[in-house]
Amino acid sequence: MRDPELEFASDDSLSGFRLRRLELFNWGTFHDRIWTLQLNGRNALLTGDIGSGKSTLVDAVTTLLVPPQRIAYNKAAGADTRERTLRSYVLGFYKTERGETGFSAKPVALREPGGYSVVLGMFRNDAYNQDITLHFRHG
Cα 106 to chain center, whole Å? Predict the structure, then answer.
């Protein structure tokens, strides 16, 4: 028997705006082509090895939904430092190299400054039959 207090919707429809599709172009290490995650409004579980891009996907969606001055990147990975920034995602930083002196570390990027990056999220609210597309573009 179902507890009526635990019922959030009167039917099985998905409530609220749900992510249907996420597209990335030159975002983090998702480089040089359009990368697509098709969710169709369903829940998804991101799994993979360390460095496979799980937090990068979460940070892409965060970029669409949170005002720039309030974003704390890499929170999904539990990072306390500001190791990832909008700049690091746009340029595609993927490692650091030691300088000739061996004391300083310099990030290595997949892309040059002035390149083109896009994050596109398509959302749907089935209850209201509404679609919304949010995008971030740089360059």
Answer: 24
At residue 90, the 3 state secondary structure works out as helix
Residue 134: beta bridge partners? 121
Q: What is the pTM of this model?
A: 0.82
**Binning pLDDT at 50, 70 and 90, where does residue 62 land?**
very high
Of the pLDDT bands very low, low, confident and very high (cuts 50, 70, 90), residue 15 is confident
As beta bridge partners, residue 138 has 117
Q: How many Å is the Cα radius of gyration of the chain?
A: 18
80: which residues sit within 8 A by CB, 6+ positions away?
Answer: none
Provide the Cα torsion 28, 60, 83, 98; round to 10°. Answer: 0
Q: What are phi and psi of 77, to 5 degrees?
A: -90, 0
* Beta bridge mates, 11: none
